């Protein structure tokens, strides 16, 4: 049956990226090929598993294979079909493992340097294709059009610096959405909420579910945002307010939040498995502005995040409720004595923080081209680092800290392997705290 499917595919006209959408019986292997000038490379031929399938890139440089079985697949690039003066960089084959109902990317960066051209398929190895370079494949492409190997320290160039700087600003904005809520919860309750990152995962997962039902990403994201706000209300009403009334210590509340985090992660994994869930199953379109290439989803996500951050900041600064929130953060007892309903303020903070974290998860799922059961957990340490760096308990400090952390982890990729980029951000955090222990916007406090 598989052989007949492969034969019929070969006899059919060449496929393109729009021809593949993952479903319970289908997985997609896809990518975008662009020249070193950022122009789409149309008409480039790719081969799957030595002739099982063959496709040509479309006018936007996109290509895709649809497969009906999980397993390992090899994608080969026909270098003879590349535009004049363009060569495959590193290796011209990629081996990738796929699972049904997911999309995986095999990326083929190009170069105009003939000396860096990939050897013919079947003769290449690690040494002949650029030392220790490995195949650049990923189940969560970052949407920049860069390969995984390009994102892990091949050397400095101004073009790459601006590209990574744009990615850093994007990451900082997305982290800011979640970090603001985390900081506000700490400021108003004194509690360190380890379950906050799970709100990010939940937002992305809910957007994935409603995208399957509605087919409209704007509607799906809006529903996820509203449901996360409702979940924040339920959290405080059912769990945190009763525990506050029982006067549990902050340490006990933190342990409860760790338990809630573990429970939510296991619930997500039980119902959705360990697969990457693609909110938008289509291949992301890219736009190049001022030499920086990002996906359309990235530009939209950055715009939405910026509007949400500015709106939250203005609300905290100029509205009556914002002033009440800051008063509760400064001194809850004095705020209550002044007639402020502290419990109501805390309830609204839980609603807003959960909603912003959910929105961050939706946008992160679009930018990363996928969300999974533990996506939020991977970003929890960065959220804490951002909040502490900016000044724990201050919303504006969380925004600045997030922008610094997001920028550092992306720009550090120029010199450091991808596995160490978060270590660079945490190192900067340690250095800053040694100089200013209260964080950038934190206030000095007298102890004793």
Overall description:
Helices cover 51% and strands 11% of the residues. The chain has twelve helices and twelve strands. It has helices spanning 2-11, 158-189, 196-214, 217-245, 250-272, 296-318, 320-330, 332-337, 342-367, 375-390, 395-411, 421-435, and strands at residues 27-32, 45-48, 53-56, 62-67, 71-77, 87-88, 93-98, 103-106, 110-111, 137-138, 286-289, 292-295. The strands form four sheets. Strands 4-1-8-10 form a four-stranded mixed sheet, with no helix packed on it. A four-stranded antiparallel sheet has the order 3-2-5-7. The chain has a two-stranded antiparallel sheet with strand order 6-9. The protein is globular. The N and C termini lie far apart (77 Å).
Topology (SSEs and partners):
Elements: H1 2-11, E1 27-32, E2 45-48, E3 53-56, E4 62-67, E5 71-77, E6 87-88, E7 93-98, E8 103-106, E9 110-111, E10 137-138, H2 158-189, H3 196-214, H4 217-245, H5 250-272, E11 286-289, E12 292-295, H6 296-318, H7 320-330, H8 332-337, H9 342-367, H10 375-390, H11 395-411, H12 421-435
Parallel strand pairs: 1-8
Antiparallel strand pairs: 1-4, 2-3, 2-5, 5-7, 6-9, 8-10, 11-12
Helix pairs in contact: 2-6, 2-7, 2-9, 2-10, 2-11, 3-4, 3-5, 3-9, 3-10, 4-9, 6-7, 6-9, 7-9, 10-11, 10-12, 11-12
């Amino acid at each position: 049956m598989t052989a007949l499917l492969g034969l019929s595919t070969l006899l059919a006209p060449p496929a393109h990226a729009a021809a593949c959408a993952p479903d319970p019986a289908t997985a997609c292997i896809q990518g975008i090929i662009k020249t070193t000038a950022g122009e789409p490379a149309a008409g480039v031929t790719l081969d799957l598993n030595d002739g099982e399938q063959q496709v040509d890139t479309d006018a936007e440089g996109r290509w895709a294979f649809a497969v009906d079985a999980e397993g390992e697949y090899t994608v080969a690039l026909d270098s003879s079909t590349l535009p004049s003066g363009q060569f495959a960089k590193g290796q011209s084959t990629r081996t990738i493992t796929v699972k049904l109902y997911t999309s995986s990317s095999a990326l083929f960066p190009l170069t105009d340097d003939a000396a860096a051209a990939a050897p013919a398929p079947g003769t290449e190895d690690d040494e002949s294709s650029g030392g220790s370079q490995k195949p650049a494949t990923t189940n969560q492409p970052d949407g920049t059009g860069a390969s995984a190997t390009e994102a892990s320290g091949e050397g400095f160039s101004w073009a790459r610096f601006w590209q990574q700087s744009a990615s850093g600003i994007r990451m900082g904005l997305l982290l800011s959405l979640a970090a603001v809520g985390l900081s506000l919860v700490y400021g108003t309750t004194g509690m360190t909420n380890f379950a906050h990152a799970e709100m990010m995962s939940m937002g992305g997962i809910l957007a994935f579910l409603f995208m399957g039902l509605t087919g409209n990403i704007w509607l799906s994201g809006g529903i996820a945002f509203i449901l996360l706000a409702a979940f924040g209300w339920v959290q405080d009403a059912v769990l945190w307010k009763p525990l506050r009334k029982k006067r549990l210590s902050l340490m006990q509340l933190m342990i409860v939040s760790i338990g809630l985090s573990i429970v939510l992660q296991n619930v997500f994994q039980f119902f959705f498995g360990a697969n990457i869930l693609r909110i938008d199953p289509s291949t992301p379109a890219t736009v190049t502005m001022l030499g920086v290439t990002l996906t359309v989803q990235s530009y939209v996500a950055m715009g939405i995040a910026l509007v949400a951050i500015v709106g939250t900041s203005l609300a905290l600064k100029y509205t009556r409720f914002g002033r009440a929130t800051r008063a509760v953060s400064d001194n809850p007892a004095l705020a209550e004595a002044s007639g402020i309903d502290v419990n109501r303020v805390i309830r609204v903070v839980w609603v807003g923080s959960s909603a912003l974290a959910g929105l961050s998860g939706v946008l992160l799922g679009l930018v990363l081209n996928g969300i999974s059961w533990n996506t939020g957990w991977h970003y929890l340490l960065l959220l804490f680092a951002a909040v502490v760096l900016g000044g724990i308990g201050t919303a504006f400090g969380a925004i600045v800290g997030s922008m610094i952390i997001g920028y550092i982890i992306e720009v550090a990729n120029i010199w450091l392997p991808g596995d160490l980029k978060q270590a660079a951000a945490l190192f900067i955090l340690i250095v800053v705290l040694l100089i200013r222990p209260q964080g950038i916007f934190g206030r000095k406090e007298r102890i004793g």
